[in-house]
């Protein structure tokens, strides 16, 4: 069953609004005084990043998945507007699903598979 384009556009708007909130939260975590360090560069030290990943892994995954869905759906919409045809539509939709699966697995591995610093 095909999904109506209005639902896909609504998904684009919802993910955009959610990204505004999640990216703001993510950038706020880079404030040095939250981590007891003196500068922004020190918030990127392995100890600080690992502590953030272990504490906020679900929110980081939500950020990654939301950005991924927003980006892939946006590219999908652009490609569907460039060319028309049943075969093209099926190919673009299949490529979008494949991209979501591959990059979603990579995002999950990046957040969940992080080893603590030695």
TrEMBL record:
Q: What is its main location?
A: membrane
The organism named in the record is Aeropyrum pernix
Q: Where in the cell is it found?
A: Membrane
Provide the alphabetized UniProt keywords. Heme, Iron, Membrane, Metal-binding, Transmembrane, Transmembrane helix
Report which superkingdom the organism of origin falls in: Archaea
| Coiled-coil annotated spans | none
Tell me a Gene Ontology molecular-function term this record carries.
metal ion binding
**Could you tell me which Gene3D superfamilies the record lists for this protein?**
Fumarate reductase/succinate dehydrogenase, transmembrane subunit
Q: What protein name is recorded for this chain? A: Putative succinate dehydrogenase subunit D
| Transmembrane stretches, start-end | 54-79, 91-112
> What InterPro entries would the database entry show?
SQR/QFR_C/D, SuccDH_FuR_B_TM-su
Q: Cellular component GO terms, alphabetically?
A: membrane
């Amino acid at each position: 069953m095909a999904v109506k384009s209005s639902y896909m556009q609504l998904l684009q708007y919802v993910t955009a609004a959610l990204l505004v909130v999640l990216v703001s939260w993510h950038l706020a975590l880079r404030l040095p005084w939250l981590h007891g360090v003196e500068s922004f560069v020190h918030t990127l030290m392995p100890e600080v990043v690992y502590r953030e990943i272990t504490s906020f892994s679900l929110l980081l995954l939500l950020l990654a998945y939301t950005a991924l869905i927003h980006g892939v759906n946006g590219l999908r919409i652009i490609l569907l507007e460039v060319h028309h045809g049943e075969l093209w539509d099926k190919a673009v939709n299949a490529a979008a699903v494949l991209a979501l699966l591959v990059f979603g697995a990579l995002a999950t591995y990046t957040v969940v598979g992080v080893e603590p610093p030695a």
